[in-house]
Design goal:
Shape: globular
CATH topology: Rossmann fold
Number of strands: 7
Helix content: 40-55%
CATH architecture: 3-Layer(aba) Sandwich
Structural class: alpha/beta
Distance between the termini: 37 Å
Number of helices: 9
CATH superfamily: NAD(P)-binding Rossmann-like Domain
């Protein structure tokens, strides 16, 4: 496949956790509409597999080995991005983990790690990148939340609440930016129901969720929602949560 669509031509997009699942699908989707795609993650081999595929299809991309919970690494990455590209138009906060167990059986270190990756890291990225977007008078922040952020999942309390905190932070900051008159800077959160990813296949709450009926979303479904929220045609859509479900009555 050769990328030909120019919907987001020359837009610079940063996607965290982009080596598999929703992140990888999002990187491919953004590249397919001519965005300049920057991906980051901890696995250099997996990162380069994604960049190789994008490049082979005619896309523009760059990869950074970066642990988003290490803010010194994040600062170095952002400084280099600004030096090279002079801007960041789209931030997709996708990196996340989940570990399930009854709340009183969870290891506290696991709980801390869930919050560090799912909530603190994306909030830090917003803290650093939103001022850049305000200065350049253009930008889209798209957080990947979860249906669990809207209605907490038993056995997944830490994950649900970490995603809920990210959702509410995005809403509050988005309102702040909008009310200051920066109407070309948008903060939105996608809250998918169950998605057919490696993480969901291994989830301890998989069967509980599937009891709610419905069909799994694909990673491409979520990636297409990112494209939808990244266009200037949706200038009035901001500070929103987008639920993506396929017939599940849990939410």
């Amino acid at each position: 496949m050769v990328f030909k669509d120019t919907l987001l031509k020359d837009e610079v997009a940063l996607i965290t956790g982009a080596t598999r699942g929703i992140g990888r699908a999002t990187a491919m989707a953004l590249a397919s509409v001519s965005a300049e795609v920057i991906i980051c993650g901890r696995n250099a081999v997996a990162l380069h597999a994604v960049t190789d595929e994008i490049t082979a299809s005619g896309g523009k991309t760059r990869a950074y080995v970066c642990d988003v919970t290490d803010f010194e690494q994040v600062d170095r990455m952002l400084a280099d991005i600004i030096q090279v590209y002079k801007k960041i138009d789209i931030l997709v906060n996708n990196a996340g983990i989940s570990k399930e167990a009854p709340f009183d059986e969870m290891n506290w270190k696991d709980i801390e790690q869930i919050f560090k990756i799912n909530q603190t890291a994306p909030i830090y990225l917003m803290y650093k990148i939103l001022p850049i977007m305000v200065q350049q008078k253009h930008g889209h922040v798209i957080n990947i939340g979860s249906g669990g952020a809207v209605r907490g999942l038993p056995g997944s309390a830490a994950y649900s609440s970490s995603k809920s905190g990210l959702l509410k932070y995005g809403e509050a900051v988005g309102d702040e930016v909008w009310k200051r008159g920066h109407h070309h800077v948008h903060v939105n959160t996608i809250c998918p129901g169950p998605v057919d990813t490696e993480m969901f296949k291994k989830s301890a709450v998989r069967e509980f969720i599937l009891q709610g009926g419905g069909d799994l979303s694909t990673t491409e479904d979520i990636a297409n929602a990112v494209i939808w929220l990244s266009t200037e045609k949706l200038s009035g859509v901001t500070n929103s949560q987008t639920l993506i479900l396929r017939g599940f009555n849990r939410w």
